[in-house]
Write a structure and sequence with these properties.
Elements (H helix, E strand, L loop, with lengths): L5 E5 L3 H13 L3 E6 L2 H10 L4 E5 L8 H8 L7 E5 L4 H8 L5 E4 L4 H24 L7 E3 L3 E6 L2 E6 L3 E7 L2 E6 L3 E4 L3 H7 L5 E5 L2 E4 L3 E4 L3 E4 L2 E4 L2 H13 L1
Parallel strand pairs: 1-2, 1-3, 3-4, 4-5
Antiparallel strand pairs: 6-7, 7-8, 9-10, 9-13, 10-11, 12-13, 14-15, 15-16
Helix pairs in contact: 2-3
Length: 247
């Protein structure tokens, strides 16, 4: 590696963190910090962004590792690799919502750490190639008063806004879920959000935009659209409740 990949370790067991740091350094990575608390990690990331965030799930303090990843992803698009002794379904399902690049179980082996990071870098390189190949493609969709025209099988088709249920991030793509069909578009969810009519759609999670008229239930951590439960991030829930009150 010409320029070492910068990794931030967020781990509250300092012996483990020191061991991880030594292994990373021996593998040629640059450790830019060892942080024991989630709140401190968020401050550190804002000042010195790493290339990869190596994050323990079960942190002490106000934020666990999953909450740290969720908060970080509101501002930055940094790959997350979880280092954890928690392998139960509840933790895994929560962590999965943050779309991590890998999981490393504690106690870890150097080979596990090495392979997880190599896979992460391979995936990052692949995503950059996809970004480059998508430059200059034709417009993926157009917005009209009551419908979107979206690219589907080399043609533009009309999708009434009333039939769109939600839109889901799918790596560098986004997937429109309508009543009768799904449409995969070559653009990010953020690009989609910027163009959608705000009176019909709202972002509820880094992975989801919903059609407000399709919401049938709002719970503490999720909402329901056509019997499909979609996670709500804390940072978006306040805006959602405001919008619901004014509709």
């Amino acid at each position: 590696m010409n320029t070492p990949v910068k990794i931030l370790i967020v781990e509250d067991e300092m012996l483990i963190a020191a061991n991880v740091s030594l292994e990373l350094t021996s593998l040629g990575y640059e450790v830019i910090g060892i942080i024991p608390r989630g709140e401190e990690a968020l401050l550190h990331i804002r000042e010195n962004q790493p290339d990869i965030l190596l994050l323990d799930i079960n942190l002490k303090g106000n934020l666990d590792g999953i909450e740290v990843a969720t908060e970080m992803q509101k501002e930055f698009d940094i790959p997350v690799v979880y280092l954890t002794a928690n392998t139960d379904d509840a933790h895994f399902n929560r962590a999965k919502e943050t779309r991590p690049y890998a999981f490393i179980s504690k106690p870890f082996k150097k080979k596990d750490l090495q392979r997880a990071l190599e896979l992460t870098l391979t995936r990052l390189a692949s995503e950059k190639e996809e970004d480059s190949s998508n430059e200059g493609i034709e417009e993926e969709f157009a917005v009209f008063e009551d419908a979107l025209f979206v690219r589907f099988q080399d043609k533009m088709v009309k999708v009434p806004i009333a039939e769109i249920q939600y839109i889901e991030a799918d790596r560098n793509y986004c997937r429109i879920h309508s009543l009768n069909k799904e449409y995969l578009l070559v653009l990010s969810l953020k690009e989609m959000e910027d163009k959608l009519p705000k009176n019909h759609f709202i972002r509820i999670h880094r992975s989801y935009i919903v059609n407000i008229s399709q919401i049938t239930e709002i719970a503490t951590t999720h909402l329901v659209v056509n019997q499909k439960a979609l996670a709500i991030s804390k940072g978006f829930k306040k805006d959602l409740l405001k919008r619901i009150q004014t509709v």
